[in-house]
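Whiteboard transcription, Tuesday session. T.W. wrote the structure tokens on the left side:
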């Protein structure tokens, strides 16, 4: 089995889905976390031409860009659907979650009050449409096909953040609520959640 090393900060954000994939696949990996204070030095030599994280190394081969990393791991471990149609739907959900992350963080960190209000409005509208579309599109016990895939892990990862902001997130989405609970209660994920490194976000 190859040696996997995933390097990121001590946060969930753009690396947690990759971590879930390792956990679900029972594949050991080095979970390297760079502290805020070590980052300026580490950044000088990080194996990414954009000088950013996450970086995945597989037997020394370097992978960058979180979505490409997740997609590679999901394909390698068998969580990327059974055919091209399923693969497309998983990608579509992955990109919609990425857009949500961007809207959420951009609105959170915008210093200008008026711009912040507009960004928050846009984020809230997007979130509401996203929830309705996913609730209506659920195919089975899982978002795509009838087994757990990368799409469910993307949904779970962003939902952890959304629930921290609003505990009644799933008030009108009973099927999504069941999906969230199903993933949280998956034995391997539950075990990971109970012992993962505590992080600010
Ligand atoms: N599109 C890239 C974005 C990577 C990115 O923005 N990483 C941030 C952390 S989430 C980073 O390394 N920030 C530190 C810096 O830019 O100095 C991906 O998804 O991997």
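and on the right, the sequence the group agreed on:
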């Amino acid at each position: 089995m190859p040696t996997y090393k995933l390097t990121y900060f001590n946060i969930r954000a753009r690396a947690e889905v990759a971590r879930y994939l390792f956990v679900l696949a029972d594949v050991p990996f080095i979970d390297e976390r760079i502290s805020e204070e070590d980052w300026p030095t580490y950044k000088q030599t990080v194996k990414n031409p954009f000088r950013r994280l996450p970086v995945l190394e597989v037997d020394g081969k370097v992978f960058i860009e979180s979505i490409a990393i997740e997609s590679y791991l999901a394909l390698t471990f068998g969580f990327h659907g059974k055919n091209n149609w399923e693969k497309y739907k998983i990608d579509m959900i992955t990109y919609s979650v990425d857009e949500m992350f961007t809207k959420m963080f951009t609105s959170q960190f915008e210093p200008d009050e008026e711009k912040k209000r507009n960004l928050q409005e846009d984020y809230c509208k997007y979130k509401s449409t996203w929830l309705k579309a996913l609730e209506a599109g659920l195919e089975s016990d899982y978002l795509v096909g009838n087994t757990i895939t990368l799409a469910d892990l993307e949904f779970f990862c962003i939902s952890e953040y959304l629930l921290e902001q609003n505990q009644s997130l799933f008030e009108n989405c009973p099927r999504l609520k069941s999906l969230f609970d199903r993933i949280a209660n998956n034995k391997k994920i539950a075990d990971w959640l109970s012992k993962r490194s505590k992080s600010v976000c």
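Someone added at the bottom: The helical segments are 16-25, 39-45, 66-77, 84-109, 113-137, 150-165, 174-184, 187-195.
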